[in-house]
Amino acid sequence: MKKIAIMTSGGDSPGMNGAVRAAVRTAFYYNMTPYGILSGYKGMIEDNIFELKHSDVSNIIGRGGTILQTARSQEFRTEEGQKKAVENLKKRGIEALVVIGGDGSLSGAKVLYDKYDIKSIGIPGSIDNDIYGTDVSLGVDTALTVIMDSVDMINNTASSHGRTFIIEVMGRHCGYLAVMAGIATGADAVIIPEVKPDLDGIISKFKKRAEDGKTRNILIVAEGAGSAYEFGKILQEAGTFDARITVLGHIQRGGFPSYFDRVLGSRMGAAAIEGLINGRNGVMTGLQGNKIEYVPYEDVFSRKHEMNQNVVKLLDILT
Known about the structure:
alpha/beta; 4-stranded parallel beta sheet; 18% strand
């Protein structure tokens, strides 16, 4: 194998640049020629593919986002778009792909592997941490650090004014960020998509806290569980709560990659190239324990990433 291409796709996540850098430098180490694909599958279709030099990945490990950029592509969902993408790879002699992204990005890699025999290894990049086969995805640790710092700052003003703050974090289908942030910040309640919220219980708890002289409350809500504004309205109507809303939004994606994400991206990027060299393909790199494993695409998409119930129980105990 002499030529490989590297791309990032879907939502950006801190640590992607570390993975790109490691893949490129590992490719050079094994005398391979790495190519970059600009803007994911959109760039693959539009032939925005270029040879990567050693200098292209210098001094990028500490940057958030992705130097290869990212975009959604409806055209890639069509057979015509897929064939264009494959033709652009083949005319350069590109033999395999390293695809860094979430479910949608890895699904695209699986399509290319299943239908067109394009070898690939995926790297999970999703701050929601909703991908099966890895304990943690790229960007999760950085996103949690941003959330933790934000909640800590909000907590100061909440304590000063005796207010209830409802803080909405990312997590459309997975409440991992909300649960972990709740533990790390000492939140008073957490609402996640996996569990039907007990609003009456939360209101009773906050009222009991008020009776005990604790007028500050922090409620963390995962976006997939409902709107923070709706929950705030319910609390306000329940009385005694001076509720304020903070939606952290895309700030969670924008932090400088943490130590953990820089190292994880580096390990996964190198493992992807070495896996391809050793005949692995149609798999995703996953962190299991402290070891990088190769997880077949079939497992990634046929099984669901489950929340660690011991962690959920710990949250219940602590709140």
